[in-house]
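Open question from group meeting: does this chain pack into something compact, or does most of it stay loose? Before anyone orders reagents, we agreed to write out a predicted structure and look at it together. Recording both the input and the output here so the notebook holds the full record.
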Amino acid sequence: MANPWNVNGLVDLAEYPLLRQHLKPHHELLSSRHTAKKDRAENWHKTIDRVNLGLFKKHKLYIADIKERLLPALDLGKTYPQHNLYWITSETWDIKVLGALLMSVVGEFFIHCYGVRMRGGYLRFQAQYLRRIRVPDPASISPKLADTLRHAFETQDFELATKAAMEAYQIDEIPQ
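Structure tokens returned:
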């Protein structure tokens, strides 16, 4: 992957001749993109999003922008999210426990409340909807319940995730 960003912003290709040489065969295609057209002509190599190098090695949950259900996927610090793929990291949560809460009916309920349903019944999992999902305090989840949630995530057991999430949220039923 070629990264056109540094800590100061978008790089000046005059200062990075090897990057300029690498990108030059793709100049016409890259220049025709909306993000390149709306900026100055010398910024034809601009990407939509800045590259966050610290994200590469972090464990994270990926959530696709459009999907039938909320189904986080785990990355153990080996990949980088591209456009239309949302990511969640945490210094507080066991990422698998959090993943199980999100994949449960309880987690998805938040998206049904705040989000948009697309044609064909697909849901949008945009950042503004994902940020509105409320989760219990991680310290309120017992080690046994955390083990159950972790197992539900690892086995993709939606029923177990939902049962454990309802216990974590201290609710008896999800409104329909």
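Observations to bring back to the group:
The chain has a mean pLDDT of 91.
Residues 53-169 form one domain.
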